[in-house]
Amino acid sequence: MRRGHTLVEMMIVLLIVVFLVGAMFMVLSTGRPTWGMSEARAALQLELRKAMLRITDDLKQTSINQTYTDETLSTSFPSGGNYSEIYFKVPASISNSTGAISWDSDAIGYAISGTTIVRSDGGTPTDISSNITAMNFIRLANDVIEIYLAAQKIISTDRGSYATIEANLTSAVAARN
User: Fold this and answer.
1) Cα separation of 82 and 77, whole Å?
2) CA–CA distance, 52 with 150 (Å, rounded to integer)
3) Would you give the distance in Å from CA 9 to the centre of its chain?
């Protein structure tokens, strides 16, 4: 009858446990940077979606005839042009009897300042989104405007190096008649 384990048996079990722990450590350590990059990519895409929603909600209120490519509202938004900023007016009121629209005197504008989308509306400019590398507006059809946003973020990894995360988003919105 045996009452215990031999030293050789204990060393074999210990060696197997060390290999299993080492394998688990390798799996977990390689998955951690991937998790961080996925988290950063999701945050960047959320930032783009929030900015796109704000821009499209504003543009749905305007008429293509009240859309301009410059802050002075002197250049109409031509078809086929590709512009990095846009300015437009929104209705102040609509006549119940005639349906005539009176337009707000202050224009809403979207432009990039550095890597930030800035919304201006006659008052204090508001930062809408950061880490933006490109913003383009293209008039596609009679009243359709395509919006393209691109963003980039540099994150540090666990091993002291850096990784670049990029995302982009395109949407089209129809301005009112």
Assistant:
1) 9
2) 11
3) 58
**Domain boundaries of the chain, sorted by first residue:** 7-174
* Identity at 5, one-letter amino acid code: H
The tens digit of pLDDT for each residue in 112-145 reads 999 999 999 887 899 999 999 999 999 987 789 9
Q: Kindly report, residue by residue over 15-27, the tens digit of the pLDDT.
A: 999 999 998 888 7
Q: Which amino acid is at 158?
A: D
DSSP track, 73-103: S-SB--TT-EES-EEE--EEEE-TTT--EEE
Q: What is the pLDDT, as a whole number, of residue 46?
A: 93
Residue-level length of the chain: 177
State both tokens at 64.
């293509």
Q: How far apart, in whole angstroms, are the C-alpha atoms of residue 144 and residue 153? A: 30
- The pTM (predicted TM-score) of the whole model is 0.78
